[in-house]
Amino acid sequence: MITLLHLSDIHMGSGFAHGRLNPETGLNTRLEDFIAALTRCIDRALAESVDLVLFGGDAFPDATPTPLVQQALASQFCRLSAAGIPTVLLVGNHDQHAQGLGGASLSIYRTLGVPDVVVGDRLETHRIETASGPVQVVTLPWLTKSTLLTRPETEGLSMSQVNELLLDRLRVALEGEIRRLDPDLPAILLAHAMVDTASYGAERFLAVGRGFTIPMVMLARPCFDYVALGHVHRHQVLCDRPLMIYPGSIERVDFSEETEAKGYLLVRVARGQAEAEFCPLPVRPFKTIQVDLSGADAPQTQLEQVIAEADIADAVVRCLYTLRADQVDQIDQTALEAALANAHSYSLQPELKAQTSRSRLPELGTDSTLDPLVALGAYLANRDDLGDIAEGMLTAAAALMASETGAEILEEEDLSLDDLDSLALEETAQQLRLL
Ligand SMILES: [Mn+2]
């Protein structure tokens, strides 16, 4: 029987906006939270003397973490190496470098030859000698179309056709690995993937290179005794035979994870059997306070009352309140800040109640086949306040439409004129500039 600790989606270095500077350490408190969560995972692995640690991918928010963040992660995984506990670090979508092969933020561990650390940045099978005997780990990192396809192969294909082709290739490649497995030894699949039967968490919004979905049946093969997943931030068991689990992220990355339990898995695996225990971590609470004040006679009093009743101690708090334009003067910002002082951090997000329904531009009509660039032009022509950035937005939008990823984003988001109207435009402009 092999005991292992399976964790995933560390995202070390993200969510700084939800923290503050710790004057004693000079670090952002959210970095400290993420370090504390990872430290607890490694502490447990050492305390249990597990035979193996599996990391399911997404170590950082991107492939170029700052040295401080890189070091924070390394100093924890090095404790496993020092204890002689084999560790597999799988490459997730956030760890991949957009340009060419290699260069993933975790590849440095292989380059340095860190003892007992295996980096899974391609589909391959690793035979690992553990204290309780050998185990086979098939690594399946996050797939992009450039992983298994060449550019000429995908030319002229729609996104869904590319995904079909990619799945065909994956099926063949995975079959190749499976056939080479030793049937007498325990076998584990470690995959960073969006499995079709999973329910979404924050990763839906985090994904930079939006990828594709793998059918659960393709991974739930009887040759695997355990399927260790990463990518989805919400802990969930997808299948019992073979046991297939997302441990979820180890800390809350954003408010979409407000109500989710965070933790890691302790798993016992032998040939033909597996059992897992979810171990919750005591992580930072997130708290959304939402109140509609538009009908209130005394909005300030009511808002302070709602805040007083909320459990905000040491929590990351966002306070969303709706009010009428004529009520704005009745809100005392300083008093609100005092009421929220007990929180770890907070943001006040007032929203004005729309007094009139949104107007539509007649020239845009209801023709949904209208060229997006023409529509954007017509929209900007009617928005004098955006005059300064109108030209830049059009240029950026044209570039966006011309680029493959841009077209994919628009297609995936099903971006229509209605959305354009309701999107926060500054943010749109900023995103366009970033692209
Ligand atoms: Mn991911």
Please give a structural write-up:
- The protein is of the alpha/beta class and about 425 residues long.
- It has 15 helices and 17 strands.
- Helix 1 (about 30-45) runs parallel beside helix 2 (about 65-80), helix 11 (about 370-380) packs antiparallel against helix 12 and helix 12 (about 385-400) packs across helix 13.
- The protein folds into three domains: about 1-280, Purple Acid Phosphatase, chain A, domain 2 (4-Layer Sandwich); about 285-350, no CATH class; about 360-435, no CATH class.
- The termini are far apart.
- A six-stranded mixed beta sheet has the order 4-3-2-1-13-14, covered by helices on one side. It has a six-stranded mixed beta sheet with strand order 5-6-7-10-12-11, with no helix packed on it.
- Manganese (II) ion binds near residues 92, 93, 94, 192 and 231.
Per-chain topology:
Layout: E1 2-7, H1 29-47, E2 52-55, H2 67-82, E3 87-90, H3 108-111, E4 117-120, E5 124-130, E6 133-140, H4 145-148, H5 151-154, H6 159-179, E7 187-192, E8 194-195, H7 203-206, E9 213-214, H8 216-219, E10 226-230, E11 236-240, E12 243-246, E13 263-270, E14 273-280, E15 286-292, H9 299-309, E16 316-323, H10 333-339, E17 345-352, H11 372-381, H12 387-402, H13 404-413, H14 417-422, H15 425-434
Parallel strand pairs: 1-2, 2-3, 3-4, 6-7, 7-10, 8-9, 10-12, 15-16, 16-17
Antiparallel strand pairs: 1-13, 5-6, 11-12, 13-14
Helix pairs in contact: 1-2, 11-12, 12-13
Manganese (II) ion binds next to loops.
